[in-house]
Amino acid sequence: MQPFHLTATGFNINYLPQYIAHRHGFFSEQGLDVITTIPTPWDGVLDALADGSADMALGGIWVPSMYRDRVQNYTVFAQIANRCPLALLRRTSCKEFGLADVAKATVLMKSIGGASVGLFFKMLLRENDIDPRYVDFIQDLDGLMLGNLFQGGMGDFFVTDYLSARAIAARNPDVSIAMEMVTQGEVPWSVYYRETSTITQELRDAQKRFCIGLNQGIEWVLRHDAESFKDEIAELFPKVPVDVAVDVVNCFRRNGMWTTATIPPKAFDRWQQGLTDARFVKQPLAYESIVDDWPAKEAQAVAKAR
Fold first, then answer.
1. Does 48 lie in the same domain as 29?
2. What is the largest CA-CA distance in the chain?
3. What is the distance between the alpha carbons of residues 7 and 43, in angstroms, rounded to a whole number?
4. Range of the domain at 92
5. What is the pTM for the complete model shown?
6. What is the mean pLDDT of the chain?
7. Whole-angstrom distance, CA of residue 94 vs CA of residue 236
C-alpha cells in the first residue's frame, strides 16, 4: 500500500465524498493509504508541501492562483467541491428578500480560515450589478463569534457555511436562510494541488488513482439519499443535529456540489474573474497554466470503461 499524505485546510461537509471514499475502501482499492492531517492555522498546508510531509493539499484554488509567479507555483489536479457551500442568513422580520437588499446593509461574514467567503459573496454581488463598496462588512472575526453576535442583533445579514446556517436557523426562529449559495452556479471551490516543481509522472499516476477513488466516493454519495446513511453522517459530524446534516447533504446532492474530480473550464474562468476583480491576481489565469487535468480525466476514462 502506497502512503499518500493529504494536508487539508479543514474538515468540511462539502468534502463528504472524500471521507466516504476513505471509509468505504475506494482509495485502498487503488493501492493508496490516504493519510489526512489538518494543520492549525490552516495555511500550514503550504509548509507541509514545502517540507515534503504532504503529497497534496486540499483547499481553495485562490491560494495557488495568488501565489503563482509571486511566491511559489502550484499545480491543481482535481476538485472535490464544484459549488459554493455558503448560505446567507437574514432576520425573519424581513418578509421579502432580494439580493439588492444587501446594498447599504451591514453584512457579517466570517473570514478566519481563509478568504473564500468574502471572495465569492462579493463576486456574486458584482455579477448582480451590486457594488460591494456600498455594503458594510464586518468580517475580521471567526464564524462562531459572528454567529452569536448576529443572533444577538448585530447586522442585517450573515454569510457563513451552509451547515452552520441550517443549524442556526433550526434553533433560532428569529433568523432564516435567505439564499443557498450552492444554487448560484459552478466554481471550483475546493481543489487538490502541490508544488509544480516536485511533480513526477509517478506522482501523476498516484494522483490518477486518487481521482479514481474520489470519483467512486462522489458516485456513491450521489446514488444514496443521505437518509440511508445518516448513521455514517452522524459519526462524521457529531456536533451537528443529524437531521440538519442529512438535509444539507441532500441539498448538495441535488444542486451539483459534487460532479467529478475534473475541474470544468467555464467554472474555473468564472472564479478567475472573481479573483481578478478582488485584485488577488492581475488578470485571469489560463486554465492550462495552473491545472493539470490529466489525472482527473484519466480517472473519468477508467470509470466509463467499467
1. yes
2. 58
3. 10
4. 86-183
5. 0.95
6. 94
7. 35
Share of the chain above pLDDT 70, in %: 98
18-33 residue pLDDT tens: 999 999 999 999 999 9
What are 173's three cell numbers? 426562529
Task: Please name the amino acid found at residue 44.
Answer: G
Cell of 215: 470519483
Give buried/exposed letters for 212-232 (b at 16+ CB in 10 A, else e).
bbbbbbbbebeeeebeebeeb
Residues 201, 171, single domain; the answer is no
What's the total number of domains in the chain? 2
Report pLDDT for 94: 66
CA–CA separation, 10 and 43 (whole Å)? 10
User: pLDDT category, 271, cuts 50, 70, 90?
Assistant: very high
CA distances from 278 to 27, 115, 118, 216, 269 (A): 37, 11, 9, 35, 14
Say if residue 233 is in the same domain as residue 296. Answer: yes
Compute how many other C-beta atoms are within 10 angstroms of the C-beta atom of residue 253.
17
Q: CA-CA distance, 3 to 52, in Å (whole number)?
A: 13
